[in-house]
């Protein structure tokens, strides 16, 4: 049976043989048992409704065992036997090029080279799912293969509600993930309703089919680290006189962080591109092995004393190198404090949005020991996590007193540390205190990286993570698009105002070195930061090249971590100071606007990055086919997709956003934005 027929088959009439649980695959941790007996029956009924009654007696004990063993029903039996990867778009069955492009992106998200837990349909972040089970995957692929340009597929948290009549200009797919009634967005609500099979955590680009492997976050991390190095170059309190104050940016500087999973795995590669020394701790041996084998980290170290010596040698030689420490980052912070190893930059990118189910591993426990405790004794595990967060915070505080610049990397570290009772605030005298002692209306002692770096330097000016995928699967197409994007950016930079010159130059440098850094994992994809003008002009140039036959179909998208797609008070909108950062109007309006301005598919999610119930985020995908319709859609949608966010940020009185939206109105007469009037503080 060939690949196309297997896609069209959907859920087969004759069930495949029961699938084995492969021990050599990086599996999701076992979820805690949260359902009562009646709820377990409901979960089983919910799972069996995908199958004809004649199969129920055979599948029931199997699904029951999965639920008892793993805390979820994944339907391993339904996992396809063909290889999972993004094939060239021409190899997919279908009546609609746009639908084929979506199929390509779904398979890329589940590619074992890309996905964190591929057999559990989880792309990254420990629980960022594409689908809840393999029956959903099979049905969705079948629907997409049958879809015409007069239909729209509606997706409810991984479940395909069905194909609905629509029209050519409508999105081909509309995706929602985890959109709960607000009072049901606590962590245990996700555990319960996900176990029941009625919702899922789509993260950001996992459940919206737009993940391109760690390359996406490599670029964002590179931009973050470069700008962080610039900040400490301007003002350094290192007693040694850190080398970023003069000479080559990043030379001899030390960046300490943790996590080598789906998103966090990009950190050592970004450190290398930025030109510093990186130490990234990770407790999962398989994650360390994966990143080392992919060339994303230079050297694996398992002994703390050995690590100290290697870092000291690298500092002396001013060497650019990355180390993966197989162990807990808490031990690294404490050891470097004891050995007086100065840390220039510090952060953390464990999946603390998911602290109780594998997102954070506490110090003092072996990896397997922690995995066992989180399912068998979840309350004890929570206690260990809280203790570890307090220890980690204490060590970080000692380093920052000596001049380390620490920032929250949008993973809810500060939030969860505060909930654990850690001394993550400062009192009026500047002493580190817990939330109980800090009083009301308090801010964390450390900034979010968006609050301090990406917000004022990038998002307020409209710069965010624009990405594209070459649907042909050809390396030469990616090389051609790199050249097109570089040429467009260079032309735009010549006319760009001083305020955005540095961001333009950083991205020109990035695209020039992209191939040399071997960033492709999975699909032939690229990412760079661009504003609305840059995104539109690059997309138009791609569309013209497709029309001329120089390249094949291109799929546009972006990370949800962007100017306007996400409302997240502890990350994307953390530099909104008018009191509106806890509102989610922008994300909802963004995805609605994208849907009627030409997006091929749109998505809106609860959760992502900083956690379930903490953020609303939206994304899109757009297939360019080299025609006039693609030209019309890209111009209309990309302009809105960026500028609605700048407009919101300018209303919050953000200086960069006020500059940017006024510039945007000068360029587009039909854009008329309500401008905030500034108040004389003396009057207040």
Give a verbal description of the structure.
Its EC number is 4.2.1.49. It is an enzyme of class 4 (lyase). Its cofactor is NAD(+). With 684 residues, this protein is an alpha/beta fold. The protein folds into three domains: 194 residues, Urocanase superfamily (Urocanase fold), CATH 3.40.1770; 225 residues, Rossmann fold; 230 residues, Urocanase fold. Helices cover 42% and strands 13% of the residues. The chain contains 22 helices and 19 strands. Strands 3, 4, 5, 14, 15, 16, 17, 18 and 19 form a nine-stranded mixed sheet that branches. The protein has a six-stranded parallel sheet with strand order 8-9-7-6-10-11. The protein has a two-stranded antiparallel sheet with strand order 1-2. β12 and β13 form a beta hairpin. The protein starts with a helix and ends in a 17-residue tail after the last helix.
